Structure formats: C-alpha cells, structure tokens
Amino acid sequence: MTEAPLLPPPAAASSPAASALLRARRRRRAWRRPRGLLCWGALVAFFFLMNWWMFSRLQDPAARPRFRLRRHPPAVANSSLSTLEEVRAADKGKRPHKVMLTRLLALAAHALAEAESRPEPKDLWKEPINATLWRPCSDQRDSEVSEGVNGYIIISANGGINQQRVAICNAVTVSRLLNATLVIPKFLYSNVWLDKSQFGDIYQEDYFIKYLKSDIRIVKELPLELQSLDLEAIGSLVNDTDVMKEAKPSIYVKKILPILLKNRVVHFVGFGNRLSFDPIPFELQRLRCRCNFHALRFVHKIQETGALLVKRLHGHMPHLSPLEDNLLGHFARKSIPTGNRNESSRYLAVHLRFEIDMVAYSLCYFGGGKDKEEELETYRQIHFPALTELKKTTKLPSAAFLRSEGKCPLAPEEAVLMLSAIGFKRSTSIYVAGAEIYGGRHRLAAISRLYPALVTKESLLSTSELEPFRNFSSQLAALDFIACASADAFAMTDPGSQFSSLVQGYRMYYGGGDLPTIRPNKRRLASILVKNATIEWKEFETRVKKLIQQTKQVHERPVARSIFRHPRCPECMCRSDS
Fold this sequence. Notes:
Strand content: 5-15%
Largest sheet: 6 strands, parallel
Helix content: 40-55%
Number of strands: 13
Oligomer: single chain
C-alpha cells in the first residue's frame, strides 16, 4: 500500500487560483527588498548630510560684534553657529581664517551639551592639598642695610611689561650684590610694543623706594655731576652682549664692579635675563622674590580699573586678601569673605598668546594657505629682520616639526579643546587675556561657540574707562595681569610665555592652595591633537586629563628654574608640615 504524497500533485499547482497566490507572494518579497535598501540608504544619507552641515558650519567661523558676560548662556540648539552671511557682514572684504581641528570641535560641542547636567570634576577649581603647606615669607629680612656707596646703577629695560619686571628685580639684586645705588629703571621704546610708558606710569615709585630702603638705596635720578658723563666713551655702557645670559653673581663682581668703582656709574642697556637663578646666595634670591611679590605695586589708575574688572567678573567687590591687597591696594574693599564664593561668580582666565608677533616669530603654520604665509613673512621682515636674514642662510626646522615638538603657540581652537576635555562646563565664564588675537573674531569664534560666556577687558569696560590706557600696551597688560592673577582658575596656553609665568608665580605665592593654574605640556598635547582625524572623544578626554593632572603636582622649585614662576622654595616661601 503506497503513502499519500506530502506535497500537492503538480496538477494542483497549475490551478489558476494557486498560480495567482504564488505570483502575489513573489511580488511582495520583491518589493520588501528595495524598500529596505531605500530606508537604509536614506538613513545613511541623512547622517552624512548632518555631518557635512556641522563641519561646514565650523569651518566658517562667525564674528560676534561684542562679547558679553552671560551667567546663563542660551540653549545649545539655539546658540549654534552663525551663518556665513553674518561672517561676511561682520568682516567684509577680509578672507576668513580657516579653523583647524573641525572634527574634534564638533565632538567637543556634543560632549559639552551632554555634560551640562553632570557635576564638574572636583579638582577642577582646586590645587592639590599639599599646596596649602607653603606660605609667603620673602618679606622677612635678616641682612644689614646696603648703603650703596660703590656707585650708581642705571638700567634701560627692553621688551614688554613682563620682561621689564624681571629686569627690575634683577637690577635690584645686582645693586645689592655690588653695594651700589639703583636709579629708578628706564624702559626702552619697542617698535613691537609701541608703548612710551615709563616706570612711574605703571608702578608706584615712592612705594618701591620706601619698601626696599632696608635692602638697597634707590634714587630717582643720577647726581648732577654724573649726568653729563659720556658713559659710552668712559666704558660704562654695558650691553647684553657684554654680560652673558643668566650670568652668575661672580661675573658681576669680576667684570662690572671694577668699572663701577672706577667711573662711579654703570648703565645696563637691555638687561633681559642677565642674572642666573642658581647658584646665588640665599639673601640675594630672597631679595629678588621680595622685589617681585611685594615691592612692585601698580599705580592707582591701574589698581582702580583692575578692581572694576574683578568686580564685574566676580559680581561683587574683591575681598581683601593678601593677593588683592598687593594688586589693588585700597581699591580692594575691606570685607570678610563668608564661606566659599558662589559658583555663579567663579571665572576662568585664559591667556591666549596668539598675537601676530608670536605667530610670526614661531614660524608655525596655522592655516590660511599661501596668503597668510606671505602676510606673516611680511610682518617678520618688518619686525624681526634678524630672523628673516637667518632664514636665508640657515635651514630652519619645518612647521610640522616645530608643532610636533610643542614649539608652536596654541591656537584658540586647540585651547578650547583642552578646556572642554578636562571638564569645564559650557556655562563657564571665561576671561580672555592678551592683545588682539591673530585671525580676530573668526578665530575667537572657535571658543565663543563652545563657551558663550566669554569676555575680554574691552567688553567689560566702557570706552571712557579704557580711554586712559589706549595706546599703552604695557598698562593694558597690567589690567590683564590683575584679572588673570585674581581668577578662580587660570589656564596658560604657552608655558614659555613670560606673562603666564609671572601670573602663575603670583597665584602660587599668594593663593594658599586655592588658585589652580592649568599648564599644558605642549609637546604631549601636540601628539594627541595630531590624531584629530581618527581619535574618539573619550580617548582624547582621558589623555588630556592625564596630561594636565601630571602638571598640577606640587613640588619645590627645580634647580636653575625661575623664582618668578616657581616661588615654592625656601628663599621665597616657607613650608609648614603641620
């Protein structure tokens, strides 16, 4: 007996109804396949379109006509990038600077939006706990008064306010070493800084003389009988070529003291970094600290406007602390702080050392093509002719090599990536110090998009309040110095900057462990940024945080390092382990 077939016989399949059913099924299957492919294709196209839109917007930075301090910035979705038409209207006729690292900037914007509801890292606004073990004590004196009987020392300091400050304190130290009388220092006019300010336009002369009277004798002018001397003819004019950089005290005793005793006067011209930090006698090193951290006080005009800046940044008058007393004098209101400062009044100060002189001198490339390279070369020919001549005869390192070695100043977009990676929220109030940024508003837009609560002294002070300082770059730098030294956190973008070094030292000396400074290792940061095209944000964030954390470690000043930058040493500060 045979079994019935499991499938319908062929004859059944050929019936009209069954044939129609099979054809309908085939049509449905055939339709599902292209429809699914179309959906996937549309989704992929959508993501590509969104990425293209974000990157194209980042590459066309917009210009804000005026930055305002905003404690509560607008929502992320509403404060996105300005349109290309706005850029053209704000900076018509100029070719905008291309912003670098657009992919990472887009990732940072997304990360900041996600992090807004999360708390900031606990150590972001604090120094390590062992920073509180050091306290200022360079005002303590143990030595006898110097009568200054061996003659007179004159200095004509070059550079900007930062180089001049170092030269002043070195001159004070050398005067003590040679038992000489110091004449109030003069400042050389620079075709880079274009500032005619003299000592009395920036610092209080009488306070300076009085504070150091127990250390050295200081006068405002040479005696009449010495004013008519031709110092060059008698061999009393000493240039930087006559004294080696960071010369030991013994060099001054051997070479300069005989000239001083013979002619009764020596004039140092330039005097940049012409005294070593080690080896040097304890009391001379302490005197150098005393000069920098105690004897040099800004004139009342600068103090008053500086107090106004700090008030508008913090939302209240500065509290009278040793730091504010030194920087602002009686313009710092005498009040007792009640607990911690309100978080909404905290601000981060950033020194963007990205002026055209720094960019041109660095020989680095920051985008913009041949036009920008020619523009910088023209600037070098005018302001740095020696560098231009050197390029003709010497093979200099390439821009790529300089960047890999951390020799290039951080561009604004690189600085803002660092800040976002270590955890500063989008709502953070940021004070930007420095002169005009190379690339102007287009370049600053890289920061203002991610951190809209961005201000400068020009946006915080009215035209009439800034008028007394116009055309005086050193006095404007003094206002930046006050704002940066008083900030709740300070970020330097060029650890080699004299300004940033002096601010760091001031915060270290007077901060009591409450004024952190962010100091990137530019070489290591460059090795991370070079992977912009492939690195994911989580890895970038982790590596940058580790890099910054290592630079925040508290340690005593290394041998031969600057006491202006690293005052944690027995000559400047006292350590208490209790």
